[in-house]
Amino acid sequence: MLGYLIRRVLYGLLTIFAVSVLSFTIIQLPPGDYVTSYIASLEAQGDEVSAEEAAALRAYFGLGEPAYIQYGKWMWQIMQGNWGMSFQYRVPVTEIIGQRLLLTIVLALGSLIFIWVVAIPIGIYSAVRQYSVLDYIATMFGFTGLAIPDFLFALVLMYLAWDWFNFSIGGLFSPEYLSAPWSLGRVFDLLQHLIIPIVVLGTSGTASLIRITRANLLDELRKPYVVTARAKGMNEWQLIFKYPVRLAFNPIISITAYILPFLVSGSVIVSVVLNLPTVGPVLLRSLLSQDMFLAGAIILMIGVMTVIGTLLSDILLGIVDPRVRLR
Amino acid sequence: MTESTNSTTSTGEDRLSVATQRQLMWWRFKKHKIAVISLWVVIIFYIVVLGAEFLSTSDPTKGRSARAVVPPQPIFTFDHGAFRLHVCGIKGERDSYTLQKTYKTDCTQKIDLTFFAHGFAYKLFGLFPTDRHFLGVAEGQGVTAEESIFLLGTDEQGRDLFSRILHGSRTSLTIGLIGVAMSLTLGITLGGISGFFGGYIDNVIQRTIEIIRSIPTIPLWMGLAAALPPSWSIIQIYFAITVIISLFAWTDLARVVRGRFLAMREEDFVTAALVAGAKWQDIIFRHMVPSFYSHLIASATLAIPFMILSETALSFLGLGLRPPAISWGVLLQAAQNVQAIALTPWLMLPAVPVIIIILALNFMGDGLRDAADPYSAVESG
């Protein structure tokens, strides 16, 4: 187990390194360097920047030096907790993304739970009652969820919620709870606002999990031990849940590692449409206004978060299925 | 589904035993009814891609503000019991209180329509200059199609939505094809090398794939897409977006290819080729790849919907294609807020072809996957 754990953590670190290089590339991509844009944004607001100050800034970020040194300096700053300044908001990047990141995690985890709760029972049923009417309906449902673009689904649900229930779901809190301290009412309010984003994000992921659950369970159901148990007169559903379902569960856990990045990705778009205070809308705005420090930091953070989630699901898989530790 | 040999008669069995692999696949595919229907749907969509100008009623780039946000308008086929293809004239009125524009149909003014009518000039398939359209205003009506036919309504600039959806299919559907072609090239090469050589190289490529798969793609795409210079032309942006999307999409295909290679590496014909001194490139591309073409086609089909959705999402966010380019994502940008849904719901219509083509491609890919291995006992996961 220890060897497996070490290997997984190493892969995780490698992935984080890859993400950080990619984020750095994105910061570098727009024409001109960021000190120039920073100075431009300062001057636009009436601040004077002297040539010495500009030179100091340049030296600070290692501009003009080879890319890998710039990258090293940037990473070094980040490890010390200095994520740089947002040109647009004129505050440190950490201040902007702190709480938004938490809500992004809540949203992604909520959707993950939704997917599990919806897809696994449907998948099990579809496998046990293969080619039944409900199996076909489940397949159709899954595919339709896959086919509707997230952003559109979010818009339509938002409109319907407003039209039918007179329920405004932009944002994550009702106005009266927006700046209120945490209380039971506020949590309830948050949950209410989370339903639609979670359903929207969830439906796009359910299809694949239904199919994976179904396929894996079908493989197990054909094995001789199932026939043996059935021949011995075991209750059918008890049999299914006691043996094949447990075995079919391992691939489901391992696929979670791939669903997570997908959910985090999707949450960006859904958040933009529903105007949720997650990192999504900030990322979009920072990209559109070329606020690259902020954008790079967000992409890096999202990547790191996903890697940690993947790592956790890998460890869970290692606990549940000892065989994978040896691979 | 039942095993085909069970139900066929002895003559059927003869037919089965002499059938080529291609025939077997086709027969297996035909059993998946939804897949066959989907195949037709996909074919129709790509016909539209080819003939978008011919099928359009109006020039998708021309609009007039006097005809902004006209709701979809029906076509009538009968007039006083006699066949007469026509639409009613419309009159725009501004509410004096809300200043909102409303349109009233005025059926005293009838505009005759006809098939193969004259309309805006274009080049059919980019080659033959013509101005014939499948449906248009009959001659001598005194109005142009742009002023009178609004099958699916118009957008805020008064451009005909129907024609724009048809033209948008061209961008949205070809991005999927080109993207898949790029991903296939990358996937076959890297997956093939990985599966064929195994060992150290396999390990490196597999780890790379794992890393790429654990990165959330949309934020990265957004970052890359936002960095595209605004001075680029539509074509350049189009290709850049395709490259960005396929940069992350090849991993699935590479995994499929690698799995096939690992299974096939031990087969006799590969050993024979090796012993005969064939180069590894030749073994991969001339001997191994053809033997799992069908699987590749199935996987590629299943990858297209993902690309179409990606383009739509990026364009919707304003980071993908930008107007004046027309794609389904660009069209959906107009339906970005709740007001649009409440007041001009028809602006969401471009989503309908998106949903249909994605469902169709998924079902078709499903059927192809079953058909790819016609010798297996019927079972699909």
Brief digest:
Chain A is mainly α and 327 residues long. Chain A is built from 13 helices and no strands.
Count the helices of chain A. How many?
Answer: 13
What's the CATH superfamily of the largest domain in chain A, by name?
Answer: MetI-like
CATH architecture of the largest domain in chain B: Orthogonal Bundle
As an assembly, this protein is: heterodimer
Describe the largest sheet of chain B.
4 strands, antiparallel
Share of residues in strands of chain A: under 5%
What is the count of β-strands of chain B?
4
Share of residues in helices of chain B: 55-70%
Instruction: Compute the separation of the termini of chain B in Å.
Output: 13 Å
CATH-defined topology of the largest domain in chain A: MetI-like fold
Distance between the termini of chain A: 11 Å
Describe the protein.
The complex is a heterodimer of chains A (327) and B (381). Chain A has 327 residues and is mainly α. Chain A folds into 2 domains: 31-82, no CATH class; 93-320, MetI-like fold (Orthogonal Bundle), CATH 1.10.3720. Chain A contains 13 helices and no strands. By secondary structure, chain B is an alpha+beta fold. Chain B folds into 2 domains: 64-156, no CATH class; 164-371, MetI-like fold (Orthogonal Bundle). Helices cover 58% and strands 13% of the residues of chain B. Chain B has 16 helices and 4 strands. Chain B has helices at 4-7, 10-18, 21-31, 33-50, 52-55, 145-148, 161-197, 199-213, 217-226, 234-264, 268-275, 280-291, 293-317, 328-332, 338-343, 351-371; strands at 76-79, 82-94, 101-124, 128-137. Mean pLDDT of chain B is 78; it is low at 1-9. Classes of the chains: A mainly alpha (327), B alpha+beta (381). At the A-B interface, helix 1, helix 6, helix 7, helix 8 and helix 11 of A face helix 8, helix 9, helix 13, helix 15 and helix 16 of B.
